[in-house]
Specification:
The structure holds three protein chains of three kinds. By secondary structure, chain A is α+β, with helices and mostly antiparallel strands. Chain A is built from eight helices and 20 strands. The chains are: A alpha+beta, B mainly alpha, C mainly alpha.
Amino acid sequence: MTQSISVKDLTLNFGAVSVLQKMNLDVAEGEFIVLLGPSGCGKSTLLNCLAGLLDITDGQIWIKGKNVTWAEPSERGIGMVFQSYALYPQMTVRGNLSFGLKNARMPAAEIEKRVARAAEILQIGPLLDRKPGALSGGQRQRVAIGRALVRDVDVFLFDEPLSNLDAKLRSELRVEIKRLHERLKNTMVYVTHDQIEALTLADRIAVMKGGVIQQLADPQTIYNRPTNLFVAGFIGSPAMNMLPVKTIDNGRAFQFGSTRIDLAGYDGGAVLERDNAILGVRPEHITIRTEAVPGRTIPAEVEIDEHLGADSLLWLKAEGREMCVRIPVEGRLPSGSQVHLMLDMPKASLFDAKTEQRI
Amino acid sequence: MAETVAKAASPARTNLRSDAMVGPRGAKPRRRLSGRNIMLYGTLIVVSLYYILPLWVMVMTSLKGMPEVRLGNIFAPPVEITFQPWVKAWSEACTGLNCDGLSRGFWNSVLITVPSVILSILVASVNGYALVNWRFKGSDLFFTILIFGSFIPYQVMLYPIVILLREMGIYGTLWGLVLVHTIFGMPILTLLFRNYFSTIPEELFKAARVDGAGFWAIYLRIMLPMSLPIFVVALILQVTGIWNDFLFGVVFTKPDLYPMTVQLNNIVNSVQGVKEYNVNMAATLLTGLVPLVIYFLSGKLFVRGIAAGAVKG
Amino acid sequence: MSGQPKRLLRNLNAKIAALPMILTTLVVFVGGTVWTVVYSFTDSKLLPRLRWVGLDQYERLWSNSRWLISIENLLFYGVMSLVFTIGMGFLLAVLMDQKIRFEDTFRTIMLYPFALSFIVTGLVWQWILNPQFGVQEIVRSWGWESFNFDPLNNPDTVLYGLLIAGLWQGTGFVMCLMLAGLRGIDEDIWKAARVDGIPTWKTYLVVIVPMMRPVFITTLVIVAAGIIRLYDLVVAQTSGGPGGNASQVPAMYVYDYMFQAQNLGQGFAASTMMLVSVLIVLIPWAYLEFGGKRNG
């Protein structure tokens, strides 16, 4: 597989502040990669470095087999879509779309052709002669995508393109971006702090924190086998249940408060005996039992039942710990009920409390 | 007790709300003809008289003949209106040997003001743009020096500039003065443009760079069209400022190039001959006319301009 | 720095475009100031020359009665002008903030003098204060024969004459700044004060004025910087007289020694003293404004 983008030992410092440290990232051709992380994690900074809008301190950036580390943004073969759309307010939609092509001194006929094609793909044909001020948020973002489209480049960079839209439009455009990717098959690097966008769009997700990629994997792996506590806690809503446990019996079981549970079926490395471990279980990977199964269930008391429509979130207290379980609506329980929780051990994650890494 | 509570509560409340407030506020409005209102409007009207009076006197005096000026009350309107003083001030008043009136100074001022305004705004707007979007090592340092430089008394820099202009061969010429106005207009205008450009979303600039626009293309095609109001503000600020300048005009030009203010002062304060107060006032009014017209036409923009000028430093 | 061949040339256009600014700051502002300060320690007469005389120029300066009068005048005028422009400006702003009608008209009237030059200002007031035809004559013609109001021809009162004109020109501007400051204060403050039953005047005094501290400081700095430069107004209104020296100011002293008396060294020393006086105003302010921020 050919590499579309290749970042080698990229380092970026702002004065004494180190923003990105020795970062390496390879993106395959046609891949949709999402940079995900909380604000300040360096994801937008990385994207700006790829675009050439920030001069890096050290390292190299290769795009389509060319070293573009010091190339101008327009020479890198990229298109970029911004959070605030960044449409030129004094130009019409047509003017916005053709501005870059005119700067590249492209013949008028070719510009016309490309604008028409982008307008057709994005269904913004009727808007071509309007100014951005007369468009809705969704339409503006379409035009912004169109501006990347007309450049006919292999790499698209998206900087939180949907954050300024309301929830409904956001999901609509999300699907549209997905469709666009299927159709154009070009490489996309997409920055967001929204995990739903990341999980639905990405071929691979790079979860970032503190200028470092914590985990780079496909959405399923990120969700089910988070590599460390940060990734585990950042992905998923409501958050993963984190239980402080002690592994015993040579790694065959763990002790949670006064309850002992078998680790049979846990999918991971050598558990060994650890005094400080953390067991992470997602709310949907726990089932409710009315009867205790020795060595397999944890007794708990229901506190609150949150009805969400399709399903329901049950907040309970087990061994003095707050826990959350996602259950079907049919199984609703009144608060104060005594229940037993059965963990889906193959889907659980065990972390070392000190290193915060997955075991 | 209650007061302490209010004072303690106030700062916190200020922080919570920061909506831009417009329109008059203060204490609640009252009935029309209360004693308070009489006091209020009475004071304002008396104060207004103090402000209007000089303009009134200027106009009235300039419309009277000399005999009437000598006899009458300077506040009284003319019994017989004459435009002779205006004609004389414009085309016959003497400074030294020249007796071709203020018109010479007027045209000098026009010749000084137009290029100075254009050049200073051009340079400062490019500065502001570079400071916001194209920062380079040391750019903030230069800006800081520039702002602090605006507080240095001009007198400190006058002579070095004289030498500089002499070396460049433009001392005593219009272009020398234009350069001086560009230099001394730079701090405040750069600040004005920098503050304005920094309100334009940075992503717009990034998008233009991805679109392959360079330094000048972004300035001309993106920033300039979006910033017309601030250019108008700068225009008002500079036209009035440069038109009203006296010191630079005296120091950096020769008598036949003196701007209007300098020539006006020479006409009015000349010790020779009989004082023609009506002509003097007509000349004064003529000199003040350009900034006054700009002031009355621009209205709120003028206020905005001086407010922008006020936040320097 | 390997692998970054274009570093110096990157964004070359931006660097070229910033050249006028760089030259202005380095050559004129920094270079010019240093040059003048350096040459103030020489005995330059008609032309600048580097013959060191130590503090001679300063000694001569501070023993020159004309300079001493200039400083005295500037101090008096400055203090009076600061107190009155800021005091009047604030009071007028408070009046304007009472939900009055015709606010725009009043503001237009109070602000228009600010658009006029000091030359125009000085000449108009010279005429109004003219003893033969102006205010004095009019009051006398009303029957008050002994009325005396001739500030410009009396060395003891000439500064008041300048002050009347200076205030006329500048208070409208200060009023606008203060009004903007008042309008920037949260309306909830007024509501809170009213709920607590604090009288309006007291609210202004104990709540609003302290809250407007930054506006007052900014205004103070601007007005003070303007006062130190005071020149045109004096030239137009009194030419430094009466009696030759009564309304001299430092800027005039500098001009005369530099460009008329051909005693450059004196001019440089005097202008350096002007710079020092600006620094005395500026440094505490910069410390308050920026020093505080850095710590916070």
